[in-house]
Amino acid sequence: MLISEIFYSLQGEGELTGVPSVFVRTSGCNLRCNWCDTPYASWNPEGKQMTVAEIVAEVTAHPAKHVVLTGGEPMIAPGIHDLAFQLQEKGWHITIETAATVPPKGIACDLASLSPKLAHSAPDARLDETWRRKHEELRWQPDVVASWVATGNYQLKFVVGTEADLVEIEAMIRETGCAVPPSKVLLMPEGTTVEALRAKAGWLGELCKARGYRYAPRLHIELYGNRRGT
Going by fewer Cβ within 10 Å, which terminus of the chain is more open, N or C? Predict the structure, then answer.
């Protein structure tokens, strides 16, 4: 499969924030989010072809016991089910970071980190109408989200740009038909700089307090800035 990068760092987002983890970033995505922070793995896929055995060997060279399959969109990567199974068989905790547009189909997973895309993710004029239409058709799949929720441990992580986004988020959660407890909803400020994240932190934190949702900081931005391999 085409791999953009494999690196050892701290998990920067979600319930496992701060946990040492090996990240396997697949290359390629079926969406084109306007604010995508990994365009090298999504908008213009790059990397090298690696076999599952080669990926497993590189992952096991690191001391962590958590591995994060991310992208791009890892669920469209050929061989992802085999990779997840082999890593779990070796005792790794598997987090899959996905936009939840592709069903799990029995994939080995200890934490499904689901990040459905809101309307504000639509690509701008940098892409032609074909991609904008495809993105809008694919970005929100409530039945697929429900299938992931049914598989076991999960978190619903939403990128929030403005307070008005909460109306859309809560409508999306209702549309899944799932009984999602507030503690499983994580709200993450949109931004790729410390300044941008902090500018939203105050009002977003208050929204989390009012609704019982979890505020999701982006630790890797705080520690390393917006750069690859972190």
Answer: C
